[in-house]
């Protein structure tokens, strides 16, 4: 978001008032997020959590510290090691992140410390066969350089019917028996409540871990579904916790990210959050939350301002608009691509995600209808977003 557009949403006087509040009451870092280098004004190295808050990951019994690290954009093992030094013991990666480099980076980072951390990785999206799952797990083991994966997740369960897929279960059961994976999970980005409720209703209680997008603007349906799966022994890991990771400049230099994480962790059914991090500033800022999870009134005010600032661009990735599009455009994935560009500032990731959408469901398919029938529950102008994606990423 440009500074001029920021000014449209937050008046300078409001920035200053909130800044004063934050500086005196909350100690929230104003460090910009989304940068790939350590700025001169990096926060002091006081973030290491002396006694990190931890929770048990459902029926796995794993004792996980509440801030894990997402490695979607990390290619430096030293960054992961720094996070581990500060108290992080849950590392999240995926077969497809940076074309396999993320897993390799995780492998290098944990050399000599493998038994001190839990690693979760994921099969590529659309891996729907037993052979595909097994082959990809073998590739993950090799890339990470480990004998076992703590949590293996099937990536992007966006359709509740996948929950009971017998072939996928057979693959995971065999891998578990062979000792190559310890626990099984899935990720979900859209139709999340439906998928979680299907898992909660599963009489076999097959899945041990659920990873989903969850933040302070998530709907009550998702919150309720999280409670249901947690009650059924499923450990819940939260991703996309910072609403697109929009830079602190969007709030006049006030970072919303600690407040965002604290909000997520107020929910006792969330075991840990795994925000993506790309530099030491972000790692320190996020890890510091483990020292105090209390959500203050100032944090709440920051989140109110953050919500206001990102309202014109933020897509909750819920997918509820998609049935309304006669051409089958995958609006939420197109918008996720835009989020990587606008929020994360990562054009390569944005383009990779965008070009991974089947051509018949991409923004290029959007007919720019005079009256777009895909209605957004948040009031976004979907046709305009699709135009923007074509121009930026097409
Ligand atoms: S404008 Fe695009 S997204 Fe909206 S209904 Fe038409 S084709 Fe679908
Ligand atoms: S555009 Fe709106 S309805 Fe569609 S996925 Fe995003 S938030 Fe949900």
Question: Keywords, please?
Answer:
single chain; 394 residues; alpha/beta; TIM Barrel; 8-stranded parallel beta sheet; two-stranded antiparallel sheet; 10 strands; disordered N terminus; binds iron/sulfur cluster
How is this structure best summarized?
The chain is of the alpha/beta class and 394 residues long.
Outline the secondary-structure elements.
Blueprint: H1 3-9, H2 12-26, E1 54-56, E2 63-65, E3 69-70, H3 77-85, E4 90-92, H4 101-109, E5 118-122, H5 130-144, E6 149-154, H6 166-177, E7 181-188, H7 192-200, E8 209-213, H8 220-231, E9 235-239, H9 257-266, E10 272-273, H10 280-287, H11 297-310, H12 331-342, H13 347-355, H14 382-393
Parallel strand pairs: 3-4, 4-5, 5-6, 6-7, 7-8, 8-9, 9-10
Antiparallel strand pairs: 1-2
Helix pairs in contact: 2-11, 3-4, 5-6, 7-8, 9-11, 12-13, 12-14
Bound molecules: iron/sulfur cluster (2 copies).
One iron/sulfur cluster (SF4) is lined by residues 325, 327, 329, 331, 366-369, 372-374, 382-383, 386.
Structure explained in plain terms:
The protein has 394 residues and is an alpha/beta fold. It has two domains: 54-295, TIM Barrel (Alpha-Beta Barrel), CATH 3.20.20.100; 322-393, no CATH class. It contains 14 helices and ten strands. The strands form two sheets. It has an eight-stranded parallel β-sheet, covered by helices on one side. A two-stranded antiparallel sheet has the order 1-2. Helix 9 links the parallel strand 9 and strand 10 (272-273). The chain starts with a helix and ends with a helix. Mean pLDDT is 87; it is low at 1-45. Residues 315-321, 331-332, 335, 376-378, 380, 382 line the site of one iron/sulfur cluster (SF4).
